[in-house]
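idk why but the lab printer keeps eating my pages so im just putting this in chat instead. protein + nicotinamide-adenine-dinucleotide:
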Amino acid sequence: MLEMTHEHWSKRAEGLNPGGAHLIGGSEEAGSGGAFPVVAPRDGRVLTHVADAGAAEVDAAVAAARRAFDSGPWPRLAPAERGRILIRLADLLEEHREELALTISLEMGKPITDAYAIELRAVIATFRWYGQLADKVADESPHTPADALALVTREPAGVVGAVVPWNFPLTLAGWKIAPALAAGCTVILKPSEWSPLSALLLGRLAGEAGLPPGVLNVVNGAGPVAGRALGLHPDVDVVAFTGSTAVGRHFLRYAADSNLKRVWLELGGKSPNIILPDAPDLDKAAATAAWGIFFNQGEMCTAPSRLLVHRSVADQVTEAIVRRAGQLRVGDPLDPATEMGALVGETHLERVLGHISAGVREGARLRTGGGRARPVPGGSYLEPTVFDQVDPGQRLAREEIFGPVLSVLAFDDLDEAVALANATEYGLAAGLWTSDLSTAHRVSRALRAGTVWVNCYEEGDLTVPFGGMKQSGNGRDKSVHALEKYTELKTTWIQL
Ligand code: NAD
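predcted complex ->
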């Protein structure tokens, strides 16, 4: 990456022409729904216009996916052959890594270094992992009486509508598409209207990798129009959604009002990060807490946005985080030296600023940040922000902010810490810092969260499942368990 200077990326950005069509049945189509602008949060400029799907385009994409599932080759291919095509797609993503990282950084504002090194690495690894897994799962034949044979098989669940947000546009799409395709399903991807460009590139590369027409379709458009049409469509068998809890509820209603399609939800979070005085390294705990909340501009479903710290070390830890916030380089996402880029856009930035004002009004202490940063004219930047003396009843402690805003709450004993950690409607992730093995086990069991990180945060790989408890969702992405979303169990009982 040495040659990849700010100048290099800025020049490449000028030459980028991502196009903006839908991908339906293997061909790129403008549709009849007009087009919407895609604005770069780094400087507020319009990057391009993208076709805007209405019900007609969604219908066409679902019909293409339905045909590809009901009578196309994909679900009938040998699993190893499906795997080979997914691995080929991983190779193509690797070849196009620069262009994809640049597109993501431009459309949603994350630092190019993170887009290239973290997001693209994850996306490539996801397609490779599920490609390798495709022929390594087996069905069951339970013990039966001597006069019978029973088979329990997993069959592809059908046509999958994947609706995803903008914060990790390709990783989150990949976590759905790769296991769905490995299982033999066909897919309609509806990316966020704030990050549609990278999804189209992925769709093109999938065709180049050998995916038959109609197996992966991409439709762009507004959530309440295109997303809703997918959610209500009678020919969609499964919806795999990542996004806010509010929109997750809509998808459950759409399913109830249509064909009772399976609905898998990866939703919001307000994750607690508990630091005990016996943490193995308090400096590391503080540095990781800061990294966790400011990484990706705080636009992380798993962001450790509630720091629960023992009162005896609260000042020391908070001071260290405030210092780190002051050193953080907020800047142009295309500058490889930038540590925090632009928030996804003005609407979202205004929302986050609203949360900050509410925090000040409700009496929390603003330790640093709280205002716009202006490294590039026209861009949507925010200072890294830390509040302490936050009360558990305040909005800062309860609502998902989805920005670089940390709320620090002090506690006096472990039971209080666990009660505070669980006092949320969400249950996506949690952190815990302690040197005591028993405490580590006891507390991680007591935390109602899909993932608990002990003496680290945001660690893991594709072997472990990811998803939420409570109102953070259901089902799991990643790992072999993701296949459960995209397959149906069938029992065949043969009387001999
Ligand atoms: P969002 O819920 O507004 O949008 C997500 C997707 O749903 C987009 O494609 C959007 O177009 C679509 N959509 C919006 N309104 C819709 C409607 N009425 N009907 C159908 N579809 C609709 O979320 P966002 O702002 O894009 O992303 C931020 C949210 O996503 C946060 O709450 C965050 O926690 C969550 N998230 C969760 C995870 C996870 O894995 N649990 C990961 C990343 C983000």
